[in-house]
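hiii so my PI (J.) wants the whole complex modelled not just the main chain, which honestly fair. so below is everything: two entries, each one labled with what it is. i double checked the lines twice but i was tired so who knows lol
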Amino acid sequence: MTEHNTEIQPDNLEQLSLQLIEAQYALKNTKAKKNAKSVLILVNGIELAGKGEAVKQLREWVDPRYLRVKADPPNLIDAQTPFWQPYTRHIPAEGQMMVWFGNWYSDLLATSLHVSKPFDDTTFNTYVDQMKTFEQDLKNNHVDVIKVWFDLSWKSLQKRLDKMDASEQRWHKLHGLDWRNKKQYDNLQKLRNRFTEDWYIIDCEDEDKRDQSFAQHILKHLDHLPNHPVKVRSKWQQAPIPEALIQPDDQALDKDQYKTELKKLTKKVADALRTQGRKTVIVFEGMDAAGKGGAIKRIVKKLDPREYGIYNISAPEKYELARPYLWRFWSKLLDEESISIFDRSWYGRVLVERIEGFATDVEWKRAYDEINRFEKDLVDTQTTVVKFWLAISKDEQEQRFKAREVTPHKRFKITEEDWRNRRRWDDYLHAAADMLQRTDTEYAPWYVIATNDKYSARIQILNALLKQLKVD
Amino acid sequence: MTEHNTEIQPDNLEQLSLQLIEAQYALKNTKAKKNAKSVLILVNGIELAGKGEAVKQLREWVDPRYLRVKADPPNLIDAQTPFWQPYTRHIPAEGQMMVWFGNWYSDLLATSLHVSKPFDDTTFNTYVDQMKTFEQDLKNNHVDVIKVWFDLSWKSLQKRLDKMDASEQRWHKLHGLDWRNKKQYDNLQKLRNRFTEDWYIIDCEDEDKRDQSFAQHILKHLDHLPNHPVKVRSKWQQAPIPEALIQPDDQALDKDQYKTELKKLTKKVADALRTQGRKTVIVFEGMDAAGKGGAIKRIVKKLDPREYGIYNISAPEKYELARPYLWRFWSKLLDEESISIFDRSWYGRVLVERIEGFATDVEWKRAYDEINRFEKDLVDTQTTVVKFWLAISKDEQEQRFKAREVTPHKRFKITEEDWRNRRRWDDYLHAAADMLQRTDTEYAPWYVIATNDKYSARIQILNALLKQLKVD
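here's the output for the full assembly
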């Protein structure tokens, strides 16, 4: 969507600046409000086209305190890291506006042009699709994405290179491409044409026009930030509640047999986790007192505490609420532990947040697909994802609650909130049924474990884990 | 302070667990309260002594949801990074308790034992001193630090190595030292004896005693968390207010001369920043409307926005308040930009926080030394620190405030808060005087700039910057 804008007269530039500042403050003031938004501006283009100058000019027209600029050298895309991972920590919070020079498209181009064996067409296109989908997920979660390509002809590029002085040359060399190489230039243009179809493309021959065109595009965008969607388009089909959730198997395991099995399996699990050569993410969901803590204890039994991290997920904090709901999990997965165990997880979006109304209908109904994509990206980048739903009967839960209340060192585990959740038992069953139906994928399956008998439950969990780790 | 504890009977273990859980919840409940605390447990020792097992046992006795464990492979200490930098992001927030296996002492030992040219005694001791001082700063800022050394004799270590199976060996190999090498063992013991004087040392021959001794030490500590100090020990001596702050020089610079100088200097500054081979941190403080924004604009004039980051510091958010006040600056300095410009800074501690009473007397009076140490650590690790106080007269400020109110695109810059701050003009002058006197160090000096004349101010700032960057 190339646009040839008419030049603005100097006396109108002050007007443009004022409008930008007003739009910026309007954005800033959405913070913590119902229609809160943040804006992410992805900036890419030909070297010396003037991305830097245009952003600098924008920064002079707006209130610079509320326009963050971020630039990193490109990360080469590899098979171990989701392309979004280097960036998620810096996703702007509600009310913020941010320009990103180094972004996933720079990475894609750098990887395509630098590696000895470049991406084939299919791989390249797959990445482009994934990036667009990721941006759509950001948009749905209130991070608006603007993409701008600064273009420059081969001839003008060469002319500008001729005119550069030494200190500038040093700086531009940092970007690592040989801009004197016509073949590389053509190749870059060919590649970027595969993804810039829906970008705003600025012809950078004229510097004033360039800066104004960029600023006006941002302004137009800020003035028309999309509303948060409120209508669910597709018809909602409630999943039937599986019998295994309502009446979990009660079969008890003999204590001696349990002990023998446990010893063998904990050892096997530790070996498997250490030797599989992938990271592992283990998710526990289930009703309160279903035995998540006890199960986690057994998984890590033969591991050293330095080998794993346990994340106990409760209500998000304010600064976490100012970002997409997956944000606080993205950042946890940046930690160095190769085994991450989640005692509750991102599934809170379709469980407690759905039930308590913290997420709107649109939001939680969309979350199943978002979560599936998130997990797929993990699995595709050397991470094994295993998910457990611990199923307990309503009677057994009551007994455990009461036992907790009279056991001194378990008393802390039971609060009024647990009793309150219990009163919404059926809501949780419905939500769990929907979740199991919609997020039980081939690459990240759910294991529903009957936990009325703790011994049997733990053995089942360890066996399921071994199965998912591809160990018999 | 080695302690030979008496063994606890099994029926008392439940009691120990209960006491630990109670202490843990008491800590947790200090969150956001007046006496809020967090606890950081540094764990080091001989391999196979059983640090991991002791922490695992502790985790079984406490509520594991509120005990985080963190372990990283050692970072070799180098001349580019303050030793605390890899850790600050993870400093526990108020109410949290955290065990750190990989910590600055592991780094010190690893660096001493691994590098081809090990630290000489003086360097080693200097690091130890710096680490202790840093810990004292953490403690003063409500992060309690517990240090535990798990010790094991050479003979027992060899016996345990003999008994290990393959999978465990793989794991322990990760730590990189050769535990079969008697000389290395002796060397390690010699080195650690130089810093473990004030540590809790656990003799790990007996495993049960080890775990109980560790847990009891933590419990004792949790039960006696020090109160936040409220008394200032030394007498406070108010600094005289320098004339330059009260009546800044008014000398005006001719516009043409300004333009010529500016062009030359902005270019020179950009060159110097790029070529000096160090990171640069530039701090701006001063009364409102003194021209911080305009000065920053000129510093970055010839830079590309990708080369620098501007941080506009306003009131800290809730999650930032839950950590030491320097925390939010530590994390900003982790960003990749090699030039960081702070529009207001950590000096807020001794300016606005002092004046508005957000920091107690003890806190802001202690902050001068803390800040000096922080900046010293930066300067010692390849960062140039330049600090500007922009001095404006009270009359000139009033004129600028009024001009802002009638200029559409500057209207946003003036708020009721600015007028409120103005009413505390003298308080700010006193605070600035104290700050200048106490933090004007040889390695990170203050430049007081008269800003009644904007042109002259900007030229002075650029020249001062060049001076500090050691360019004539």
